[in-house]
Amino acid sequence: MAERLGRRKTRMGIVVGSRMNKTVTVRVDRSFPHPMYRKIVRRSKRVLAHDEANECNVGDRVLVAETRPTSKLKRWRVAEILQRAR
């Protein structure tokens, strides 16, 4: 149980908005089989993530990590940029 306490959730997503200062909007997609029909269902959620250096642009693939609340809606931070947008 003690090892579980220090672990933070991480998600991979695409930056869909970067107009705010030190904040980016990231679309996190997930897919899972439907409980009854077993067809793959895709769902997405938009989260606000803290980007300290303002280096993310729209279209970048990023890894976001869970963190303490930074503002009213920000609970994630950009851990790393996996792939730059072309």
Structure, briefly:
Strands 1-2-3-5-4 form a five-stranded mixed β-barrel. The protein is globular, with a radius of gyration of 15 Å. It has 86 residues and is mainly β.
- Overall outline: globular
Biggest beta sheet summary? 5 strands, mixed, barrel
Q: What is the helix tally?
A: 1
Question: Whole-number average pLDDT?
Answer: 94
Strand order of the largest sheet: 1-2-3-5-4
Relative strand content: over 45%
Q: Could you give the order of the helices and strands?
A: HEEEEE
CATH superfamily: Nucleic acid-binding proteins
Q: Do you know the CATH topology?
A: OB fold (Dihydrolipoamide Acetyltransferase, E2P)
Radius of gyration: 15 Å
What structural class should be given to the helix and strand makeup? mainly beta
Supply the key terms:
five-stranded mixed barrel, 86 residues, OB fold (Dihydrolipoamide Acetyltransferase, E2P), globular, mainly beta
Write up what this structure looks like.
This protein is mostly beta strands. The protein contains one helix and five strands, in the order αβββββ. A five-stranded mixed beta barrel has the order 1-2-3-5-4. The mean pLDDT is 94.
